[in-house]
Amino acid sequence: MREYAEGGAKLIWGESYAVEAEARAVAADYAETAFLMGSSGGPEGDNFGVFGTRNHEAAYLAGMLAGKMSKTGTFGSVGGYPIPEVNLLINAFRMGVKEVNPEAKFLNGFIGAWFDPAKAKEAAVAQIDGGADILFGERIGTADGAAERGVKAIGSLIDYTPRYPGTVFANAIWNYRPTIDAIVADVVAGKPVGRDYTEYSFMKYGGNELIYVAEEVPADAVPAMEEKKAAIAAGTFEVPIDANEPA
H helices within the chain, ranges in order? Predict the structure, then answer.
């Protein structure tokens, strides 16, 4: 990051929470360089902006579909770490499930890593053995366990459907572009970027969306989900943000 700043970069950004402390230290030494980092904390000074992933609205909608599909009534989820951005995503999925399946039960596991597919698969299989027949995969590898055991899964952040056909039936997509467009516009305009850009991850800005395989979803599950999606887009329904660690 120091090399980029010394080289004249106007904006340095990253999505990894693991380098946040280092980024803050570097930003303090280069006031003329704008920084944007994924963070559970707040902005700092005029040149350090933050954002949080907020595909929770899409996760809620995915939960509404999943709630109509389970035969066991038990739903699993596999996350990386219990930080607010992960917690609120899993909790939103659960809220969506409960919207259509009030008696639903939930299992959850954190693998203590951002990338460890084998560990995520192991956690997924354990939840399937515990009765879950639909899994929310906040971490990659969850769908591997689902595919192996013949149950359904939901992807997060990107589209996992091509990689797991017949297993992943929906994805809570996070679109980074609105966030980047917003801070680039501020940099070009010479405005301070020491603010929270998280809002640009919301559905109203195109920051997240639900995609699903229509033929794999019960027809009677779609109308209520689409109605809720329209309400979110219109601002008449706000998906609650619960950053507490899921039980």
Answer: 2-6, 20-29, 56-67, 84-100, 117-129, 142-149, 177-189, 222-234
Structural domains of the chain, ranges and CATH numbers in brackets: 2-51+175-200 (3.40.50.2300), 56-174+217-234 (3.40.50.2300)
Angle at 239 between CA 243 and CA 169, to 5 degrees: 95
- Please provide residue 12's backbone torsions phi and psi, each rounded to the nearest 5 degrees: -120, 125
pLDDT digits (tens, 9 = 90+) for 44-96: 999 999 998 899 999 999 999 999 999 999 999 999 999 999 999 999 999 99
Q: Give the other-Cβ count within 10 Å of 62's Cβ.
A: 29
Integer Cα distance of 191 and 172 in angstroms: 32
10 Å Cβ neighbour count for 131? 14
By CB neighbour count within 10 A (0-12 exposed, 13-18 middle, 19+ buried), where does 132 fall? buried
Q: What DSSP letter does each residue of 95-151 carry, written as one string? A: HHHHHH-TT-EEEEEE-S-SS-HHHHHHHHHHHHHTT--EEEESSTTHHHHHHHHT-
pTM: 0.91
